[in-house]
Design goal:
The chain is α/β, with parallel strands linked by helices. Helices cover 42% and strands 11% of the residues. The longest helix has 21 residues.
Length: 551
Amino acid sequence: MKIFRSILIFLSMYFLFSFPVFSLSFNDSGTPEELAAKIENAMTDEQALAQVFMFGWVGEEPSPLIMDWITRRGIGGVKIFGWNTSDTQKLARTVGELQQASLRGAFNIPLLVATDQEGGWVRHVRGSTSETPGNMAIGASGYPRDSYLSGYYIGKEMSLLGINMNFAPAIDLFTNRNSTLIGPRAFGDNPVRAGILGAAFARGQLDTGVIPTAKHFPGHGDTALDSHGVLPRINIPYETLWDRELLPYRMMIAEGVPVIMSGHLAFPLTEGGNTPASLSRFFLTEVLRKRMGFNGVVITDDLMMVGATVYLGSLSLTAKQALSAGNDILMFSSTPFLNDSIWTYLLNSMRTEPDFRRTVRASARRVLELKLRYLRGDKRVPYIPNLARVQREIPDPEGSAFFLNLASRSATIVKPNPPSSLFPLTPENAGRVLLTGRYRDFFNFGRRAYPDARTYLYNIQSDPDTILPYARNADTIIFCLADENDLPMLRNLQQLNKRVIVFSVLSPVHLENVSWVTGAIAVYSYAPESFAAGFSVITGRIPSQGILPYD
């Protein structure tokens, strides 16, 4: 018996001292600030560093590598991309598996589960989720409540899927008309209106438990370049930046936005020089933290983008600089190996550089505080999605009705002025109608409006002359214009002297290149609701209420 008791004592002591014992838990009582400080103080450097990482993964189901990062490292978050989301039920199960793995870890800390669901053009969570008119449609309607409800209904669907963080709203301004990255993602070109609408969208998200993110700081709107492929350099003085691009951020910070995403953009005429803002201590610490008073979490845009890596030439150096500059979360679209140089380099830097160690641990504390503030309580997004509710409630029925109303309120007759000189254009007075474009929903709703219309579906490789035999036999041609790829075929119609009405989707800026057309209507996405609204305005079933949200 004494021998047996001795063995039990030995085993108890062995397990006590061989394995860490975590008496603290994410679910303990205390304010977010107090409990975040306690957990961060109890963390090893490895555990603190892991909280500042957010990774994406390839495939619809969790990869073994992302599961290793969660179970063995305890990373702070995961990012859901479009390649993860074609099956909504499978996505919900995946989110539940990821969260269960995280909750079994040290301190029972849940993951930040993030995505880009801005609405309109940018909809990373696909499957059965709602297609929406997007930010420029909100700007065209002009109602803050439309922005609030857009955020709210998008948030309801994300919450059902267990997604607790959304990289929206984009509050970049529609300053550069040639931007291929921003375009209809902007509310418009007015900074005050963008700030009001951005704050309303964020409030709608928060009321569903989803954490909103204002992006892309300091502002991606005044460039035609895309930071996915290059580092854009925006040549405006700091005074212009402060009064224009930064104004929506200043307004949203005053309204309590919890997260801001830093963009890979350089502003050479400011103290930031040619350093990407996402790696700039001037922009993230001096301007955002000190001058603008932001106390929340700063997250990088994807660090795999060329706009980030081109500056230092090394992903490890880029990650370290991003943290040193003032970011709290490093976001990567892919999953590195467990002992990749990014991890080992940052961890070694923490061990050898006291200032960097303090910086990382301060970021980990801010991440923990964010989680404790928004991922606890009755109103939080569920960790484990209810698959029956996902099946039953996505797309959200009330949201679908709202988005149709928003599309209708935002549809804008751009030409002629007054509209009554052409519209309404009914089947009786339109004559022989030709519908032409690249989107099948355009034809679906166009044929409902004009049952006898002929159709011509083309693609961007089609010879512009192929439309002429169809167009010559038409009295009215309704042409769907999405981007510059459509312009050669549209311009080819000018020679026919026909009644040509342009049905503009996405950015209406391309209408400026075809001033000769008879009429033009703008909607701001290729969602079915937008096509339905546009044809309803053309035929006079509903009035045109939208106003172009830029000068």
